[in-house]
Write the structure tokens for this entry.
Amino acid sequence: MSEEISQNKVDIIVVGAGPAGVSAAITAARGGKKVVLVERAPFAGAKNMYGGVIYTHAAQEIFPNYKEAPIERYISAHSYVLLSENDSTQITYKNSLHKDNAFVAIRAKWDKWCVEQAVKEGVYFAPDTLVKELIVKDGKVCGITTDVEDFYADVVIIADGVNSLLARQIGLREDIKPKNVALGVKEVIKLSPEVIEKRFALKEGTGCAMEIVGGPLKNMLAMGIVYTNQDSVAVGIGASLEDLKAQKIKPYELLDSLKQHPFVAEIIEDGEIVEYSAHLIPEGGYNALPKLYTDGALVVGDAAGLVNNIHFEGTNLAMISGKLAAQTALEAFECGDFSSNTLCLYKKKLENSFILKDLKTYKDVVHTLYGRTGSFLTYYPDKVNEFFNIFTAADGQPKKEKFRQFTKHFFTKRSLSELFKDVIAGIKIVFGILK
Ligand SMILES: Cc1cc2nc3c(=O)[nH]c(=O)nc-3n(C[C@H](O)[C@H](O)[C@H](O)COP(=O)(O)OP(=O)(O)OC[C@H]3O[C@@H](n4cnc5c(N)ncnc54)[C@H](O)[C@@H]3O)c2cc1C
């Protein structure tokens, strides 16, 4: 072993201090290993953006004291909103017994708190340190080159997010394809806690997660979100990069149109924009999984494409994949084998967990939706609003006449062949999920 290795050698290096990296690092430290967690930003969370929801089951599994973290609001209401050009239909689910299913947290505060917990448990945190590349010797990953110095380890856990230059460097992943990512853009709009609670019909301290389709997000694979922080709301969109490119729409224009829709405009009225951010979201799912391990290295979280975009879940998959990768690394230490022969156990653990089970369940949904976005994410939301417009109007016109008109429109504005394709797509989606 060279002098350099003995000086800068630890057991496990984790690259990236997002939810995946910190969970891997803290799990490895709890297993008694010497761990370095490397982050390019000056503090964890500084460069990280997302919608806003953290799922309690994963948070609690990694941080049993998560309630001490800077939490904005516990989610008590989950809304799904269908927009048409001017109207909206909202379904809100409230379950007071499961108040702690999820909470809203701001990444700059949450990630920082998580890393503080990891440091308390023995993780060495190296902020402001950019990992330039992995050091590979005789086909085995054995360290990292940073802008500060080189570090060596028996296992490197790659948690550097959706772009993962490191996983690409060692051939575990291909370059990002536009159809496998969505672009998320988000604004944080300041409003007083009282106004937020009034507009969302919330009890003090509780929050709402809202997902939106249709309206200005028409004819593309795109969804909107509105999440409540303590004294601000996050309004954002996530849209397929391929669709944005093909339709030559700029993401901030799409966000602006969403904000101007009467439904959203009412929620954010008189609010002040205090933050704007954008980030890619892995969308490829199960069919686009990269190779998850190689000799000496494991890939976790967004770097491995582990996002369930149907349910807007990413942080929980990141945290639990980080934990499972670290557990695999600990097993590798027990048998003294850091090759793929042992590290392949990570994939088995993912397969046995909700992570790959869920991604497999939805593996064809996005692909099927791609061809039918004009139907499922535009035409039918429109029709739902049209139906409720008729159903709720007391305008002196006989109801039967209006329902007949609605049914006639429904079938004349949509050719039978299109309807047939929608039914087939719907069946494909349902059977794909249930099989
Ligand atoms: C618009 C949007 C909305 C979302 N909403 C939600 C939501 O509400 N709920 C949810 O659960 N998920 C959501 N997600 C997904 C979620 O944010 C991600 O799945 C999650 O953050 C992945 O965690 P990670 O640790 O794998 O990666 P990241 O959080 O991206 O962390 C990667 C870290 O690695 C660091 N890094 C990168 N390269 C290097 C390098 N070379 N050297 C050193 N450090 C490096 C980065 O600075 C960063 O800190 C959303 C995502 C987006 C974009």
Summary: The longest strand covers residues 73-83.
